[in-house]
Structures are given as C-alpha cells and as structure tokens.
Amino acid sequence: ADYHACHQTLQKLLKTQDSNTKVLHNKAVVEFYNSDLRRYDQFRSAMMQLTGLVGEIRTVEVKDRESCAAYVNQAIVLYHFKQPQAALKIMLAVMVHFDRLDDYLLRRAGIFTVHLLLDTNQPKKANRLLGMLQNRLGIQVYAILSDSDEDEPLIDNESRKDISELQFEEFRKEFRLILIRSNLLNGKKNMSIPLEDTSEYSILKGHQYFLGNDYQMAAKELSKQFTNEPVSVNKHGEDQNTILANNMGVIHFSVKHYALAARFFQQALLFDKSATEDTSTEKVEGSPLYCVGATKRPEILYNHGLALLHLQRPKEAFECMLIVLNSNHNNPRLWLRLAECCIMVHRQEKQTQNTNICHGTVGSGVHRKYVLNPLPKTAVVDGDQSLAIPATTLEFGSLCLRNAVSLLEYHEPELIRQSESTDKTVPWDKLFEGVPCNPSLPMKLASFNKLKCAVLAAYSYVLNTLGEYTLALRYAKQLLTMKDLPQSYL
C-alpha cells in the first residue's frame, strides 16, 4: 500500500473539500498507517472530533451510515485501551444500520462486534449476530468447517466480489475461528473442529474437551507441538505462552490440584510480563496500537487469587484480588472473595493465639494464686486513619461485603423481571444474559441466589465478630428468608 501517495491525494482534496468528513476520516487513517499504527493518540483525537464521543460514553446514536467507519475505528481504539464495554456500546449503535452497511464494512464491523460480545460474556447475542451475518453475506454454514473449497464455496461469488483472494482467506479463517468459539460458549460441545495442529485450533479443541469434563485430553491438546509460527505480542497483540499457561492452570484448578494451578498461573504472569515489557500496556509512544492493552494480567491474577485462597494463603490471594479490583469493581463475586481473604486471615490469627487464660499458679493451698496470660494485642485504629484503606482486616472485609450487598440489591429486580419474562420476540441486542460479573461468567438467577446466600452469611459473621449484633441479626434473618436455602446455612 502506498500510503504516502494516498496522503498527497487527500491533501489536494482538502483544498476544495476541507469540511468533507469522509476526506478528513481517510486522512486520519492514512496518517495513522504511515506511523506504523504508533500515533494512536492523534488518531483517537481525530475520531473523537468526527463522532463527537468525548469522555465517558453513556449513549451512542449513529445518525447515518456514512459516518459508521469513524465510529468503528473509535471502538477499535477503545478496545485496545481495555474498554470493551464502551467499544461495544458504539458497535451496537453501528449495527442499527446493519441492512444498509456495504459488505466490506459489514464483514469488519460484524466480526469485531461478535468478538466484543464474546469477550464480555454475551454468547447468545454473539450467536444471533453471527446468524444475521451468515444470511446477509450468503455464508454457507455447512462449508465453514470444511478443509476444502472444491465442493461448495464458503461465500457466494456475488458477496465476495469487493475483496481480493488474500482478504477473503483472512476473513474465512477469522470467521471460522469466531464461529467455533461462539458455538462452544453457547454449549455446543460436540461440534466438529478442523484437525489442524495450530495453536488457535488446539486451544479451541482443548476448550471443547474442558467443557466435556475431559480434563486429561484438554491438557494433552494444549501440550502439543504446534505447526504455526508462535503467536506473539509484537506481531499479533497476544502471547501464546501466556494463554496456554493460564488455560493449563484452569484445567488443574478444575480437578482441585490447586498447588499445580497456582504454579501455572505464576508461569502465565511471568510469560505475560516478559511479552509486554518491551511494549508497555500503558500509553507509551513507540508501541503499535495492537500492543497497547495486550496484557492478560488482571484475568490471570483473578485466577491466581482463587487458587491461593483454596491453598489457605489469604494474604497473597488478597494482593492478587486487589489489583483486579481496579478494572472490575462492579463484580460482587470479587468483593466477596476479598472479604473471604479477610475472614480467613482473622481465623488463622485466632487459631495461633493462646486461648488458655491461665498461665500458671504460684503458691499452694489457701495462698495459691493464679497467673493470667496477658491479653492479646488488639489493633487500635487511629482516628485519622480510614477503614477503607485496603488491608486484611475484618473492618475492610465488612466494607467489601457492604459493597457486594449493594451490587446484589441493584441487580436483583432486573434479574427477577427477566427470569419471569415470557417474551420470545426480543431483538438480538436486547437479549438478557444475566448480571455481568467480568472477568467471571455472568450470573443467572440460580447462581445469583447462591452468591447472595454466601454474601449474607459472611456479612452476618463479620458484623457479629465486630460487635455489630443488631446488623448481624438483620442479615441473618434476611438469609433465613431465602428460598431453597442450602442445609449448610441452617
């Protein structure tokens, strides 16, 4: 591609069409490519001027399809800056013009939207959108997983006349991978996956075995020698070793080998650090856009924290969870895990204390005197010190549980309303898939009730230990009103 000549042509056009948004957009894109995708701040500012989306994105309305490309590009920048929810809001607004977008832009925007939906744990919406793309682009569903194109073309010739053979093959590969991933996340465990010894297909095959509870085969699939070039941050924006080590950790965690799981998560963190240290995930000039936000550290730390908590190492687990809290503070499960770390530290410290109040005796008979053990030292909180400062104390645990209760109370009415709804004509982008709890799976009503029971029981225990007996009784009574309360809480 001759970006320099293209830029010169656009400069000439600007002399007569300086207010044409298409010319301004194309000029920004060409300048971005001329910088090897490194001047993303300048590109981001240009897209914000074209779309008018500045600051926190609450609602998005794309008025005409001519401006869709600028919105898509802004969403791509947000995605690389670890803001998938904001990017998804933009892409859902672009998809309102689904039937009016040209095929080339629809292929790019549609696959990107599916990718965002899967990354934010919304597989049903992703599956519906994939079906719409198949119908609109004339994609032959039965041919997508075939290794040969001799019998049936993947896409009819009319729908692929605007792209070259190379672009078509890239789209085919991307569509095949995203379709398999979507089907697996929607519970289709027995689907056929191409027998290719590449890292992409082996990871998907391992995921298929994992969903079928065949953990041994899942681990074997991930341990293969891959035939493709290793996926690296510098070339692809992701690190293959990081993903494999994390997935191996998840497999061992599922079979309750928590020590091995923790070791794999530690390896994943080291791989991630090594892969991203040259291309920092912060805004550093010189890093291409696809290297920004390439780190998987928050997700791995969440997994590592859970493994450490099962290994009775609450202080280390607390440090891991605390970092994850920066990017996932709306997750009630995460607040509960932090509180559980505080409770476990308290119980471990209590077990190490000498509970015998009598140290010994002096004298005998009527002159015998008992010598008492000194009282354990209790932490005195300075009046100027806030209890909100993160620490493995019951006071901070109480704050975590209060946040968890607030989040559950906020989501409960909508969750109940959606579970009782019988409307089958809901648009694809309005499907309810549970309460979002990224990076963990969204909560449906059953898992929501289980979490609520755990939060209320823990909160009542913490308040009772801190001497807040009235509030402890209140939450204990609320726990007892829960339907189908497990026997372990009675």
UniProtKB/TrEMBL annotation:
Source superkingdom = Eukaryota
Q: Check the record and name the InterPro entries matching this protein.
A: CNOT10 (IPR039740), TPR-like_helical_dom_sf (IPR011990)
Claim: Acetylation is one of the keywords in the record = no
Q: Which GO terms describe its biological process?
A: mRNA catabolic process; negative regulation of translation; regulatory ncRNA-mediated gene silencing
One GO cellular component term of this record is: CCR4-NOT complex
- Where located? Cytoplasm; Nucleus
Q: Which UniProt keywords apply?
A: Cytoplasm, Nucleus, RNA-mediated gene silencing, Transcription, Transcription regulation, Translation regulation
Known PANTHER family for this protein?
A: CCR4-NOT TRANSCRIPTION COMPLEX SUBUNIT 10
Q: Which family does it belong to?
A: Belongs to the CNOT10 family.
Quote the function comment for this protein. Component of the CCR4-NOT complex which is one of the major cellular mRNA deadenylases and is linked to various cellular processes including bulk mRNA degradation, miRNA-mediated repression, translational repression during translational initiation and general transcription regulation.
Q: Under what name is this protein listed?
A: CCR4-NOT transcription complex subunit 10
Origin organism of this chain?
Anopheles maculatus
